[in-house]
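Request from the bench team (R.T.):
"We need a structural guess for the complex before ordering more zinc ion. Sequence and SMILES attached. Just send the tokens back."

Command: build protein-zinc ion structure.
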Amino acid sequence: MQARLQEIRSHDRVGRTTGELSGARWVDRFRGSSSLKDLRGAFRDRAEAFVEALRAAGAVVTISATFRPPQRAYLMHWSWLIVKRNLDPVTVPEMNGVEINWAHEDAEGNYSRQLSVIAARAMVEGFNIQGLGVAPALRSRHTLGFGIDMNIRWNGVLAIPDAYGNIVQITGTPRTGMNVQLRRVGESFGVIKYNRAGRDDPHWSDNGT
Ligand SMILES: [Zn+2]
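Reply to R.T.: structure attached below.
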């Protein structure tokens, strides 16, 4: 294994063997935001207008994520692959500005895949991504400042103005962000419900991805 590490060290893109060891402490670094203020440019204003309209109409909006630093996405992506797809921790590529060492050593100073996986698992649990069916994306609308995860709910009929000031009476179900009528209201503001393959129930963005 030592020979293998030497070999990998000779490449400059993978197999960092210096820096701070991986583990749960990394979960508190490069923190993500749940504030609309951390969204980018015009999309921030559109998202604020949509959420304000929702709340004024009586909906309960709980925002869990907006901007996610690319460094955090990197930590989530690779720890997930190590734990859920059996990726060898020593093969994780480096990211500039993230001085993490994914390769733990045993008491004799040899690379320990087992200890390395244990440390990655602590990160996956800290990020609370053990239930995901795919690896968190390295680049997404969140890392660019154009994505929001939010839980939306209301009781009865939701009467909400669209971006043009027309009141829309939302009578159908579900009374959540998955409601088709609400989706159209969001579109009028330029806030688009996730519309690609699979499900991402809380996710809205500038372009539906
Ligand atoms: Zn999202």
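Two things stood out. The longest strand covers residues 147-153. The helical segments are 2-9, 41-56, 70-84, 113-127, 141-144, 180-189.
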